[in-house]
Amino acid sequence: MDNETRAKIGSVAGQLVQQAMELGLTWDEAVAAFGLAAKAAAQAAESSGGKANEDCVAIARQRLDDAFALDVRVIVTIAESEPARGDVQDNPLLATARRRHGGRLH
Question: Which residues lie within the region annotated Disordered (predicted)?
């Protein structure tokens, strides 16, 4: 995978996490949503008939598993221009992660 493709994928992943946070999803709800989106994309590719391999869902599962092997850095920031919507600590995605890791985000 070239650097441009990696950058595009990273951008999409960041946008998905941001959207999950804005919607108030917990981390496990966000992961379920991403998995569902991956399956829907694979089924759409499979039904389009444009792909030589018929088993796009199996490939999608492998891609998801491969993605877990990649290094990821998460930085949470709050823009000063955003209206006060509660503290980052009030966000369900971050709060559920904080409970699992003894109050620390990693």
Answer: 86-106
Q: What residues contact 77, with CB distance under 8 A and at least 6 apart?
A: none
pTM of the model: 0.66
* Tokens 């998801």 found at: 64
Which amino acid type is present at position 100? R
Are 20 and 37 spatial neighbours (Cβ–Cβ below 8 Å)? Answer: no
d(CA 51, CA 45): 7
Of 55, 50, 54, 20, the closest CA to residue 37 belongs to: 20
Q: What is the rounded CA–CA span in Å between residue 11 and residue 104? A: 25
CA atoms of 71 and 74, how far apart (whole Å): 10
pLDDT tens per residue across span 37-81: 999 999 888 888 765 556 888 899 999 999 989 888 877 666 655
Distance, in Å, from the CA atom of 56 to the CA atom of 102, rounded to the nearest integer, reads 39
